[in-house]
Amino acid sequence: MKLNTKKTFAEIPKKYATLDKSKTVLIPVPYDYTQTWKKGAREGPKAFLSASKHIELYDIETNSEVYRKGIFLAPSVVNCSESTKKMVKKVYNTTKKYIYKNKFITFIGGDHSISIGSIRAFGEKYTNLSILHMDAHADLRPIYKGNPYNHACSMYEASQKYPLIQIGIRSMDIIEKKYIQKGNIFYMHEIYKNDLWMQDAIQKLSKNVFISIDIDVFDPSIAPSTGTPEPGGLSWYTTLRFLKGVFKRKNIIGFDIVELLPNKKEYSTDFLTVKLYYKLLSYKHINANSYI
Fold first, then answer.
1. At what angle do helices 236-249 and 268-285 cross, to 10 degrees?
2. Looking at residue 38, what is its pLDDT?
3. Global pTM exceeds 0.85
């Protein structure tokens, strides 16, 4: 599935959407071959871009219009019929292409398996790298349903190479316990009782950080349109408060947002995803000390 990238993110003027003048690259990955419950995340990038037309481009909190820093909408990486191994390689190669153009690289999925290729590429460029993984699920299976590239395995490879800080986890298989990095997982039931969890998590991150956000990290009361919703998730402002602190204290090298599964009867999750994306760009490109 090819997205029409003659259009721009949020219909921003084309002068702010060219590759050479944009600080940010947005890469759609419309892929959901590995989804194991409800499929449809392949339509996530399309729904995301459609919802982006309705966002206000002035951000009140940061007193900024971050689109003026430039957002280049790249061609979509894959079509939904490709094997997961081929998809991972394509995401890896595409990430490397833009890394060496010195762009801030972002992704919209697609299921969580798309993170494997991008993290591989970032790991080759950056030393002192850690991964911030925000999700309802641990995603630490070495293999699932015969496939090491399944969305349930999306963080296993990263866990073997880098510090992996996991936030909001509230569902996992017992086999995944052996792959958890001790002290680096913040279960949702513990977050609920720990007022200091944000500073504890940020302290565990290294200098350079890649962020991977599964939409199901949010409570389904505010983000129901995802493939594997779990009760008891994060709220909107708690999430923003935490991420703002991460961006202020660490060098964020890129991020992805995955597992948006559009629902024709419910558009609020599409818009939440767009709003989150734009917020993160504002936190990255606007001087944090000017608004915190």
1. 20
2. 67
3. yes
What backbone phi and psi angles, to 5 degrees, belong to 73? Answer: -90, 105
Residue reference for tokens 């298989």: 173
Interior CA angle at 251 toward 245 and 253, to 5°? 115
Q: Is the pLDDT of residue 263 over 90?
A: yes
- CATH architecture observed for domain 9-290: 3-Layer(aba) Sandwich (3.40)
Query: Residue 16 pLDDT more than 90?
Result: yes
Q: Which residues of 198-237 are buried (b: 16+ CB within 10 A; e: fewer)?
A: beebbebbbebbbbbbbbbbbbbeebbbbbbbbeebbeee
Residue 12's closest CA among 1, 2, 23, 95? 23
Backbone torsions φ then ψ of 281, nearest 5 degrees: -65, -40
Query: How many angstroms separate the CA atoms of 61 and 58, rounded?
Result: 9
Listed by start position, the domains of the chain span 9-290
